[in-house]
Write a structure and sequence with these properties.
Blueprint (H helix, E strand, L loop, with lengths): L11 H10 L1 H16 L7 E5 L22 H7 L6 E8 L5 E3 L4 E6 L2 E6 L5 H4 L16 E3 L5 E3 L9 E2 H7 L5 E6 L9 H18 L5 E5 L2 H10 L5 E5 L14 H11 L3 E5 H6 L3 H7 L3 E5 L6 H10 L3 E4 L2 H9 L17 H4 L8 H14 L2
Parallel strand pairs: 1-2, 1-14, 2-9, 9-10, 10-11, 11-12, 12-13, 13-14
Antiparallel strand pairs: 2-3, 3-8, 4-5, 6-7
Helix pairs in contact: 1-14, 2-14, 5-6, 6-7
């Protein structure tokens, strides 16, 4: 069996307990997948850079997670140096109708010793761009801070900083071979009316149709109504539904399981699902159901920074992974699966080739060994 390279991520071992606990069910699905005609034939497996070359985990002891500012032009173009097909990023729309790239719902700064915050979508574009590094030489922007999940507010310090950017700038200045996975970002704690969602999505679509040219695009969203509406508003680009795969529970039941995600996609004509990787490992039987529904399947999450976990998903039938450690994962999986060289004619994930995941011809004994080995390999 080919040798796998482990990536060091401090909080992964706990998540890998999920893999160990579900090993018998996963093994059954992998074995069934081989029986369904994998036969050793290799097809395209997609690697997508999360927020470019990786998200910023500012509290992580792993310096790779603070290497370059997430969701920035620099991060996108850094990711393009590796054989990724797409970069994923978060798009919101400012108060004056400009689509910008930023993950968090609130943006923080410090002025006169006081920390203040603004909802990103309440800002005019000119005010949003005042935060962080500036394009104009010698001009200083407002200090950019970030609120952590534990409530702490810290300086947004990275080794390679870059100004905030708009969606239009990304189309104009990012390597044209890269596809864009555009996440339509909405606040989980707000209710949106259809009129408001339509206004937001149309602002995004205007930029996409004006500047995308031949670039491959995938839309995705955790917001079920936004995902459905994007599918209604256009048919040029595929729309994927983002789900935690049952790892978190919401008041909207459409978000609470892979089964609900399948139903939503089929009812609205969406082309794929993006699940938290743990959801796939906990419910491996959902994978063939997704494939039978003729849907593409991508995953995201901390587990995707571990080559062994990525490889197991590849065997299970997952079409691609969204990763933070772009260099490490592309290097690791290139030894095992077909990772395309940089190509200006990247196929869209909605194609038939992308919907059939590769299934290398490994023996059941080797797969079983790999499943047992995963939790032990990650330090």
């Amino acid at each position: 069996m080919a040798q796998l390279k482990a990536a060091r991520v401090a909080d992964v071992p706990m998540a890998l307990d999920v893999v160990a606990a579900a090993a018998p069910a996963i093994l059954a699905e992998v074995d069934a997948g081989v029986g369904r005609g994998g036969g050793g034939q290799k097809k395209r497996f997609t690697v997508i850079g999360h927020r470019g070359k990786g998200m910023n985990a500012l509290a992580s002891p792993d310096r790779r997670m603070q290497e370059v500012k997430e969701n920035s032009l620099r991060s996108f173009n850094d990711a393009a140096r590796f054989p990724v097909d797409y970069v994923e990023f978060d798009v919101q729309v400012t108060k004056d109708g400009c689509p910008i790239i930023f993950h968090d719902n609130f943006i923080f700064t410090e002025e006169d010793g006081k920390i203040s915050d603004k909802r990103v979508t309440d800002l005019q574009l000119k005010d949003f761009l005042l935060y962080g590094p500036q394009h104009e030489q010698g001009k200083c922007g407002k200090p950019l801070l970030r609120k952590m999940k534990d409530g702490r507010i810290v300086n947004w310090n990275v080794q390679s900083d870059d100004p905030l950017c708009t969606l239009q700038e990304a189309f104009e200045k990012v390597n044209p071979r890269l596809g864009f996975n555009v996440e339509l970002k909405f606040d989980d704690y707000l209710e949106y009316q259809e009129e408001e969602l339509t206004h937001i999505l149309q602002a995004i679509l205007k930029v996409v149709f004006d500047y995308a040219k031949d670039r491959s695009i995938i839309f995705s969203s955790f917001q079920p109504d936004a995902a459905q509406l994007m599918r209604k508003l256009q048919s040029t680009y595929p729309v994927y539904f983002l789900t935690n795969g049952g790892t978190e529970i919401y008041t909207d039941v459409r978000r609470n399981s892979l089964e609900e995600a399948i139903k939503l996609c089929l009812a609205s004509g969406m082309q794929g699902i993006v699940s938290e990787a743990r959801g796939i490992f906990r419910h491996p039987a959902a994978v063939p159901k997704i494939k039978e529904a003729n849907l593409s399947l991508l995953t995201y999450g901390t587990l995707n920074n571990v080559p062994e976990a990525v490889y197991m998903q590849h065997l299970m039938g997952v079409n691609g992974v969204i990763v933070d450690l772009v260099q490490e994962i592309t290097e690791a999986v290139s030894e095992l699966i077909t990772v395309p060289e940089p190509d200006t004619n990247t196929d869209n994930l909605s194609s038939e080739a992308a919907k059939d995941a590769a299934t290398p011809n490994f023996s059941q004994r080797e797969i079983s060994f790999l499943l047992r080995l995963i939790p032990e390999l990650v330090q």
